[in-house]
Amino acid sequence: VGYMVAIGLVPICWPLAILWALAIVHWSDPDKAYQTEFHPPITGLLSIRSVIALFLLAAQVPPNDLWLLRWAILSTGLGQLGILVWQGHHLWRMRGTRKNFTFHMFRDGLRGSMANRVVTGGLLAFCLALAPPALMPVFGLGILAVNSYTALAGAAVGLLIRFPPQILSYDLSGLTVRLGPLVLFGAVAGLLGLLSVGFWRGNPLDSARGRRAIWALSLETWLDYRLRDKFVGQGHFAFAHHARWWQSRQAVKDEYRQAHCDGLQVLLEYGILGLGAVLCWLGLIARGFAPGYPWTAAIVAALVVSLNQFTLHLPHTGYAVVVAAGVVWARIH
User: Cβ atoms within 10 A of the Cβ of 219, count?
Assistant: First the structure.
């Protein structure tokens, strides 16, 4: 039955058919095979099924009702901003009750409800690119508050797409007036991003050196796969299993649960076929991209964040990207 679903998906969106087939390949019947307690093989099947369902449902929303989807996503971002304000107020009140209360402790305490300031920053960057102009400063302040250079980069690229510079249509003076606020935001974002590299970031082991180490280990591990696994991967949570082994060998100082690069993690889990399917899926969706279109800017902002984080591997951030992809898909179908 599962493979029949994959065949049925081919005329609709063939890259999704490949991802669904790969999920079935890695699934095993719980009555016939041992299932691990924390990382059961069915997890990948459930995840890809929900992605396909959300994508196709979002593509069926009438254009006149897209504002509902837009504000549903923006409401989650506004909710995170409210939590950040509450956390900041609480930390400010605590400053006199704890000794050695530093700026780094205050800054790292702004995590939102997801207990991770970088993930919260990624969601806010997505919302900033999607938001109406009146709300953009609000989301921009939230991104600056969590102080994630990855979120700052995603927000900056999203703004460039949302408000593309019309270089060929304006002279130098007109260009300066139109790009003034954007250049100012980019300068502040770049400065804070450079400073955040040198600041203590909550976990001293999760550093730029650590990221490079797990990326190198991930690529080396994939190259050591047998031929079949190079093409289809080793299934959902394959990276987590390898990362635990790397940490036990002290190849890295910390146990990473995510690769902090979604493309590389897909390569380990679903092989070159899975990564190729994702890239082809993005290529098909990109035909509906347009400068100045909020949904385009939001998707690109999320993809920039995913190069150094795991936006697409978390449901509370990845599903928003899937919904946006479905909206863009509807423009060309």
Answer: 13
Residues 239, 218 contacting (CB under 8 angstroms): yes
Return phi, psi of residue 309, to 5°. -140, -160
Distance CA 66, CA 311 (A): 23
- pLDDT (tens, 9 = 90+) of the chain, 333 residues, equals 677 888 888 899 999 999 999 988 887 655 555 555 556 667 778 889 899 999 999 999 999 999 999 999 999 999 999 999 998 888 887 776 766 666 667 767 788 888 788 889 999 999 999 999 999 999 999 998 888 888 988 998 898 888 876 433 444 444 444 444 555 555 555 555 544 444 444 444 456 677 788 899 999 999 999 999 999 998 888 888 888 888 888 777 777 888 888 999 999 999 999 999 999 999 999 999 998 899 999 999 999 999 888 888 888 889 999 999 999 999 988
Give the Cα separation of 103 and 18 in Å (integer).
48
Q: Which long-range contacts (CB under 8 A, 24 or more apart) does 3-10 make?
A: 9/52
Distance of CA 252 to the CA centre of its chain: 23
pTM listed for this prediction:
0.84
CA distance 101 to 84: 18
Tokens 């606020």 appear where? Answer: 181
Answer for the pair 106, 91: CB distance below 8 angstroms, yes or no: yes
Do 124 and 146 meet the contact criterion of CB atoms below 8 Å apart?
yes
At 28, give phi and psi (nearest 5°). Answer: -135, 145
Reported for 101-110, long-range contacts at CB under 8 A and 24+ positions apart, including other chains, are 104/199, 104/200, 104/202, 107/147, 107/199, 108/200, 108/201, 108/202, 110/84, 110/145, 110/146, 110/147
Contacts of 281 (CB under 8 A, 6+ apart): 13, 15, 16, 19, 325
